[in-house]
Structure formats: structure tokens, C-alpha cells
Here is the input.
Amino acid sequence: MNLRNALAGICSAALLATGPALAAGKAKDAGLGHDYRTFHADGRVEYGKIGDSYTADLVMYLAGNQFMVMEELMKDFQGKNPDIKTVYVETIPPGQILKQQILKQGEINGQKTARNPDLFASVNLGHLKKLRKKGIMHDYMIYIHNKLELMVAKGNPKNIKGPEDLARDDIVQSHPNPLTEGIFKFYGSQMLKDLGIYDKVTGGKKCRSCWAVPGKVWFTSRHHRETPARIEAGEADVGIVWATEVAYAKAQGRPVEGVPIPEPYNMADKVGYAIGILKPARNHYNAVRFLSYLGTPRAQEIYAKYGFVKATDSELKLKPIPVD
Here is the structure.
């Protein structure tokens, strides 16, 4: 066992030893420090400087499951554009961003956050349609794809073979909440409906930080990054996550693994990341430069390295946001 795996085991054991309350708290806060980052051209990364959303040379509010890509991506982008000294990147559920930070004044850790990021991205084009109706976003492009996967503990001790097993009564599940997390609201829930097990798994409930089915199915608080922490802590046996989440956790040496979900249930044909520039953006030119960068082979390769699926050339071209 290498040092990283040993430390992961010690951390998991410590969580279990201190009881479910602390373990749940650790899961709730999983990855929180990476949600709000400022990337500097000299390579420095600062965390939690919410005020930079008003002053950075480029401000981006992106779907949270890209958090693991950002450091390498920003290093390459700023290396090619050294005049862009600071880039502020927020990676939390896009529904939460839209409702609580763009459509109304929001606060993070007691600090006001800018309502006019230069770029906003979501896994649901419907979010961008709402901005078009408000007259604050007009064009978009699809720049990467993802798919659903099941995450289980290393060795798959419950012998979970596929998504149909989520109907079993002998497993404890952790899934993204259906209120603010697009992965479940738009995709995970549809998968369960397609399999005919939605009511069985969810108990018909839509809530967050809650037991949808008492003692059996937990809905996360704010981010699907909580699920790997719950699995490590012995709080859950399985959870719906993005395939990229499994790849990233395994690359870190965490004691988890993935169970592939076959097509069409993995939603690979539906999950496209849509991004666009906001009309009130302060740094429109820099936003255009970043969109151009996303279409480069290097940017696409960086995303692919973390398990994302590259966009096609036609998808990487700006087009009007469709009107319903």
C-alpha cells in the first residue's frame, strides 16, 4: 500500500470512528475549498476570494463537475494569454448559480458575489434559455460531454452490477439532490424513470440534505462530490455520479471504483455542456478569447484527460440559444 492509499484509509477510518454526524459533515463540505478559486498568471491559486468576482480579468461560473480540470486548464489558457492576469472560477451546481447569483443578488460565505459573470455554463440548455428570455445571453456552444456512472467502494463489496441494482433493499445510496443538482434533476432521475424504478429509489421525494427513503437513499446537500466522501466514510454503498468523478477519485488513489452504466441509460447522448457570454459581462473580449480557446485541440485534450468526451467541430461553433 502506498502512502496516499494509507492516508486515505486512515482518514476513512477516522470518519467512521467519530460517528455518522461528523462523517456527514465531512461529506457535506467535500471539495468546498475548490468551489471558488482565483487563478493568477504567475501560477498562484487563491481560494475563497469572492470579491474577485467583481474585479478579475475573466469571471466564469461553471457547472461544478469541472472542478478537477480547472487548474491545468487555467495554467494552459493563461500561459497562452499572459495579459489575462486573474481568472475567477466558480464551480458549483449551475441551477444554484442561475437562481441565487445571476437572477438575484447572492452571497457566498457572507460576501456578495457579482451577478454578471463573463461566462456561464450548465449541463442543461434550459438554464441558458432562461437567460435569453431575460435578454442577458444570446449565443451558446457545446464544448464537452459527460455520462453517468455508479460509484461504489473499492472491490465493490455489495456486488452492484448496474443501475437496475438501485432497486435493491440491501444497499444504502447517496445521490445528488433533485432540487439544485442538474446531474440528478435532468439526467439521473430520467435514468431511473426509464428503468421503471424512480419511485422505488426516491420514495417520490424531492429534497436536499435529506433521507428520501429513510436510512436507504440520501440526497446530498449541495454537490455530488459529497457522494465519494460518504462512500469512503461507510455512509453509503453506491451513488450516481459523473463518469469523470470516478476517474478523478481513482486518480487520487481514493478507495472507490466505478460500475459503468450502459447506453442509453448513461445519458451520454444527452449530456452536453453549454456555455455562453452574458450581455452585462465586464470582460467581453476576454470571454470571447476563452471560448475560442475551448475549441483548441489542447483544451479538448485536457478535458478528455479527466474523462470528459470531446465536442465536435460543429458543436464548438457559437449559435443562437433556441427559443421554446
About this structure: Residues 3-17 form the longest helix (15 residues). The chain is about 35% helix and 25% strand.
